[in-house]
Amino acid sequence: AQKVTQAQTEISVVEKEDVTLDCVYETRDTTYYLFWYKQPPSGELVFLIRRNSFDEQNEISGRYSWNFQKSTSSFNFTITASQVVDSAVYFCALSEANMLTFGGGTRLMVKP
Amino acid sequence: DAGITQSPRHKVTETGTPVTLRCHQTENHRYMYWYRQDPGHGLRLIHYSYGVKDTDKGEVSDGYSVSRSKTEDFLLTLESATSSQTSVYFCAISVGGGREGHEQYFGPGTRLTVT
Fold first, then answer.
1. Is B50 on the interface with A (CB under 8 A)?
2. C-alpha–C-alpha distance, residues B67 and B115, integer Å
């Protein structure tokens, strides 16, 4: 069975700090996909990134970056120079046969 | 915007009553999903559908049934609501035509309270 663990339930930072959200996964599949979603206080779920298991290159999108390490089964998400608008719950997810398994989420609070 | 709507958006119901939640999509996606979100559990899959009249169970399917008579509509029914089914329910679609590993896009959610 697949499993996704987000050990940090809540993180609080001050604006402009960098912050890393951890995600560790378990799967027996050799081909799999990993995702990050953002859930702002308004409640909707926003897709951020999808990464397949054969692509271990780090990805950067503006202030967001993702570090995928197959050796440690981790797919961590870093926000550089955090802003108040980054305050949200962030979910990591793993795909198996068209179904997603989600981690429990990390609530990020960015204070001005 | 993946063109997903959910109705109702909020509902309060009493224990033992039947409840049906509706998910509607406008883009003809084959795969549709129902999740529930509870504190500390992230989102958990209830049921999913891979076509008209084709459905399967997810991780937390007990107490729920689904139906898909048209591509655009996926219904979730609680036959006899219980307090443990108080939750936020999200519908989702998968892009990619059924190939594995494609991202899912979510509807706005339905907050259900069972008293």
1. yes
2. 25
CA B68 – CA B76 distance, rounded (Å): 9
- The candidate with the shortest Cα–Cα distance to B11, out of B108, B72, B89, is B89
Report d(CA B15, CA B10) in Å as an integer: 16
Q: Which tokens sit at B90?
A: 């999200």
Best of A21, A34, A36, A45 to substitute, by most chain B Cβ atoms within 10 angstroms, is A45
DSSP assigned state of B110: E
Q: Are A58 and A52 in contact (CB under 8 A)?
A: no
Residue A35, amino acid = F
Q: How far apart are CA B101 and CA A54, in angstroms?
A: 12
Contacts of A47 in chain B (CB under 8 A): 103-105
Alpha helices in B1-115 (DSSP H): none
- The tens digit of pLDDT for each residue in B6-41 reads 999 999 999 999 999 999 999 889 999 999 999 878
| pLDDT tens column, B38-81 | 987 889 999 999 999 999 999 999 999 999 999 999 999 999 99
Strands (E), B29-82: 31-38, 42-51, 54-57, 64-70, 73-78
Yes or no, beta carbons of A99 and B106 under 8 Å apart: no
CB B92 within 8 A of CB B106: yes
